[in-house]
Amino acid sequence: MRIVAENLNFTYNKKSKFAVDALKDVSLTIEEGSFFGIIGHTGSGKSTFIQHLNGLIPVENGRLTVGDIDLSGKQKEVKKRYKELRAKVGMVFQYPEYQLFAETVFEDVAFGYRNFFPDAQPDEVKTAVFGALSLLGLGAEYLDKSPLDLSGGQKRRVAIAGVLVSNPEVLVLDEPVAGLDPAGKNELMALLHKLHDSKRVKTIVIVSHDMDEVCENCTDVAVFSEGQIVFKGKPEEVFKNVEQMNDLRLGVPVTSFLTDELKKIGVDIDTDFTQKDFIEKIASHYKNNK
Ligand SMILES: Nc1ncnc2c1ncn2[C@@H]1O[C@H](COP(=O)(O)OP(=O)(O)OP(=O)(O)O)[C@@H](O)[C@H]1O
Ligand SMILES: [Mg+2]
């Protein structure tokens, strides 16, 4: 399922003096199978954009198609497609653990399933809930626990399981690792990769402020600034724009910064800016010039 936005515009509080043009002519294609990173400084329109992807914000101006679901046009008609859309595109908000509400982990995740399959039999719900939790590294021992008794990282995984349980094709996560410690970040990223590699979720879209994180994990990147897309493409292309990314006060991954500095002193390496590739290229440069 491919996502195509063409000249998407969105204004908050239209027709009032508090109007904010949050998206300006955003055109972007998110291919099926990508692990897509959306970056940009605060207030640049990232969350506004992703909320369009499952109908939380209606298409006001421009075009948006998610697979064969067209979200543009008369909103009365479009709204009829929301149920189908939301079954396909799961949305995980920033700090999703704040939305856990049930008494047990099981009930919380089951709520996510029954939302889409209200007639499901108890056995079916149980299988789905257990499956989703185990994909997020949480075993049966968590089912009866209160979400309040879990660590921050575990709560977040329960919240993601509540979205994953209904089998979306696309998972959109707004800053999924924000506020976690380094080990927790790595662990959650590894789980997202596992979901992606096994094709349990075909396409993953993450919003991030962290250039290194996006560079290490994403197949494609779009950089937002003041409601517009200023760069889009493969990380190795986007992060070549060191000066422009610095001007935008976003910076670049440390590998990209170092590659740029090395170039200034005559050491030219051709790397995709992942740490693994960067180290390999430096090692090979060193060996060849010994
Ligand atoms: N509900 C709202 N009402 C009015 N203006 C809003 C609303 N939500 C966002 N905005 C404004 O729209 C613009 C884009 O906001 P958005 O939340 O999409 O940015 P963001 O890139 O996700 O930022 P952050 O990194 O801080 O999460 C900002 O100027 C913001 O102040
Ligand atoms: Mg945001």
Question: Can you walk me through this structure?
Answer:
The chain is globular, with a radius of gyration of 21 Å. It is built from twelve helices and ten strands. It has helices spanning 46-52, 75-78, 82-88, 105-116, 122-135, 152-164, 182-197, 211-217, 235-238, 242-247, 254-264, 275-288; strands spanning 3-12, 20-30, 35-40, 61-66, 69-70, 89-92, 170-174, 203-208, 220-225, 228-233. A hairpin with a 7-residue loop joins strand 1 and strand 2 (20-30). It has one domain: P-loop containing nucleotide triphosphate hydrolases (Rossmann fold, 3-Layer(aba) Sandwich). It has a six-stranded mixed sheet with strand order 6-7-8-3-9-10, with helices on both faces. The protein has a four-stranded antiparallel sheet with strand order 2-1-4-5, covered by helices on one side. The protein has 290 residues and is an alpha/beta fold. Helix 4 packs across helix 5. Magnesium ion binds next to helix 1.
List the helices and strands and how they pair.
Elements lengths: L2 E10 L7 E11 L4 E6 L5 H7 L8 E6 L2 E2 L4 H4 L3 H7 E4 L12 H12 L5 H14 L16 H13 L5 E5 L7 H16 L5 E6 L2 H7 L2 E6 L2 E6 L1 H4 L3 H6 L6 H11 L10 H14 L2
Parallel strand pairs: 3-8, 3-9, 6-7, 7-8
Antiparallel strand pairs: 1-2, 1-4, 4-5, 9-10
The structure holds adenosine-5'-triphosphate and magnesium ion (MG).
The site of adenosine-5'-triphosphate has 12 residues, from strand 2 and helix 1.
